[in-house]
Amino acid sequence: MRSASAAAATLDVAAIRADFPILATTARGAPLVYLDSAATSQKPQCVIDALTSYYTTSNANVHRSVHYLAERATMAFEEARARVAAFVNAPAAENVVWVRGTTEAVNLVATSWGRRNLAAGDTVLLTEMEHHSNLVPWHMLAKSPDEGGLGIALDFVPLTDDGQLDMDVAAEKLAAGPRLFGFTAKSNVLGTENDVVRLCATAREHGVVTLVDGAQSVPHGAVDFAALGCDFLAFSAHKALGPMGAGALVVNADRYAEMDPYQGGGEMIMRVKLATSTYMDPPLRFEAGTPSAGDVIAFHTALDYLAGCDLAAVHEHETRLTRLALDLLAELGVRTFGPADAAQRAGIVSFDVPGVHPHDVSTLLDGRGIAVRAGHHCCQPLMRRLGVIATSRASFYLYNTEDEVRRFADGVRHVQEYFRRR
Ligand code: PLP
Asked: Residue 270 has what pLDDT?
């Protein structure tokens, strides 16, 4: 297996594509055009091999036994933690808590930090563009204490009509002193790339703890935890060429002291008596039970691959594909959502073909081997803000080509013609 770096430095897309076996397959009898990477990315052969290799040469439970395999697995597991820390420029491996993905990371913050530090009268500030995974855990805390919540208030930064956060209102709302501001670095519907550094700086001025949802940003560009200045950064392996079942919550070490364990069980404890227990230091304190070690280890391989791909070139490539898609859709009279400038929304294009339900759009494209997503994208409040019940969404990654974008636009033209005839 050729190493990623050979394929990447200048973003040689043909060489990159050769590393992803699924991209050479067909769907419905046509060459697959995979435009759904915002839902999950495809995996290079090296990641598939890493999973196989783990189960054929190293499989053992981690942090438990002292035999050869257990030592191999534990070492690889902890090396992966250090790799994640280095990938996002976190201070140390100890700042990385393994989770199943972004959703679990946000739930961990809401439970471990939220339940310890929030009370009725406190506000958590979110935005109108959040994924359900950064809404529902806070809804649970907003319930009244007799319903299991804390009775906290929720507030939301609104959007401008071109799908950006209203930064003036964000500043006002941060000045009002919410306890925590949770927001996505990049919208999975609009593609909007938020000014995380500025938002975190304003939050810090007012003593507001910040949680950044990096699900759509970490896989697509250089994300620097230290430079962002946030308290928590959450992301998923599966959107970054890695396997499903692994993800990371990067934690500012000052926050660890303010957090209770998320779950109780094996490996997170120091000492257990029948009626009491004491806990390991973080990050293990937040990792009860057997982790998804093989997935974590293959995530390491995925990040090596990505790091070999010049992330600035990846971002530029995605911007180019996005610009082309926006131009071609505009020629067809198709409505798109989000910033007009492709540079502000690289990689994601949500659109509406007038008079055609997004599921029909997706089904007809699928008939030509083109995979896009249709639906509310786990963003029902955002759909309401946009005045639609659903959108179709094409999302691009380092392995997509201009030719695929043209096939996609051709497919959309076919959808329009099909419904015009009926
Ligand atoms: N946040 C954003 C912006 C997302 O796009 C997604 C997934 O689509 C998530 C959170 C949830 O990620 P996961 O399902 O991997 O936990």
From this structure: 96
